[in-house]
Amino acid sequence: MIPMRGVIGADSEIESSEFVGLLDAAYQNSRLKGVVIEMNSPGGSPVHSGIIYDAIRAKEQSYPDIPVFVVIEDMAASGGYYIASAASEIYADKASLVGSIGVISSGFDASNLLEKIGVERRTFTAGRNKAFLDPFAPMTEEAKTKWQAVLDETHQQFIDAVKEGRGDRLIITDDVFSGMVFTGSQAEKIGLIDGLASVSDILNTRFPNAEPLFYEPKQDSWKQLAKELGVEIATKVLNRTNLQ
Q: Would I find Protease among this entry's keywords (predicted)?
């Protein structure tokens, strides 16, 4: 059992180096019968998503008799689904949010605002495209074209990973790679997932005699302390409120 919950990226809840290490540790257990990833993620870094995806695929190729299941809780969107698509099988709740196979880069252009309030921006660069994402300067057509090409290539990498992971189970529609999200019920119909099931369903049907063993990321001591202090303070506040 590997819980994978939160945003994907460096210094985030799901960091590739940590979860690849957890995966390695799980496969070092000689009694391993299968891997169940509890997924609940809105996505994040395509780099960290890709690294975890590749690690799962490599394990599946090296250990073909050990299946990897992903069970989606609230969502596996964007990078979350990128990772999930590497699994042998994917399951979700009928109301889970699945997909969002796309790439986004957002910002704003405040150059007209600076002009209106009489502020002149001074930016010095070496390289004509170095400041192409500067929100206080208009983006050139050259920069727009090249940045869109970066996003398109990243999107294609995502698409290729999903196609490889899902294979013939995937039904390609106009929406499936558009960045749209689907409910679990909708996702099952187009092959983004293999069925509707919970973690307990998978454990009971696929591993009825197995003993679940959790491989979880270590929480920083200061985060754990903050959590414990938060609970203690909240309890005191509630007790005081009740007394009053």
A: yes
Asked if residue 54 is part of any domain, the answer here is yes
The CA distance from 112 to 118, in Å, is 10
**pLDDT tens figures, 64-96:** 999 999 999 999 999 999 999 999 999 999 999
Assign residue 211 the CATH number of its domain.
Answer: 3.90.226.10
Report the alpha-carbon distance of residue 43 to residue 179 in Å, rounded. 12
Degrees to nearest 5, angle at CA 230 with 225 and 232: 95
pTM score = 0.85
119 assigned to some structural domain: no
Q: How far is CA 107 from CA 31, 134, 205, in A?
A: 49, 9, 47
Tens digit of pLDDT for each residue in 10-35?
Answer: 989 999 999 999 999 999 999 999 99
Say how many domains are in the chain: 1
